[in-house]
Amino acid sequence: MQEFLEFIARRLVQNPDDVTVLREDKDEKIVFRLQVAEQDIGKVIGRNGRTAQALRILLAAVAAREGKRAILEIAD
Questions:
Q1: pLDDT digits (tens, 9 = 90+) for 7-60
Q2: What burial class does residue 27 get, using C-beta atoms within 10 Å of its C-beta: 0-12 exposed, 13-18 middle, 19+ buried?
Q3: Chain centroid to CA 31
Q4: Could you count the other beta carbons within 10 Å of the beta carbon of residue 44?
Q5: Please, which residues have CB within 8 angstroms of residue 69's CB and are 6 or more apart in sequence?
Q6: Parallel, antiparallel or unpaired: strands 20-26 and 69-75
Q7: What's the CATH number where 58 sits?
Q8: Closest Cα to residue 71, out of 4, 48, 49, 63?
Q9: Which residue range forms the structural domain that includes residue 66?
Q10: Nearest to 19 by CA among 44, 56, 42, 50
């Protein structure tokens, strides 16, 4: 899941080398913290949060295949 999220995020931003995905396991869920360059935050969030919502939906689908629950946080 982490590699999947990194792959998509790197394709969205202008500075793919600045993309970092941190994973934290909590109880029955996995929290992914996505960090990008400051000028790329808008591209990851998208207009009205649509890109971020799409990322969350894709991540939830991948996690569901593994029987887990995933949460995406976009860090400043």
A1: 999 999 999 999 999 999 988 899 999 999 999 999 999 999 999 999 999 999
A2: exposed
A3: 10
A4: 20
A5: 28, 29, 30, 60, 63
A6: unpaired
A7: 3.30.300.20
A8: 63
A9: 2-75
A10: 44
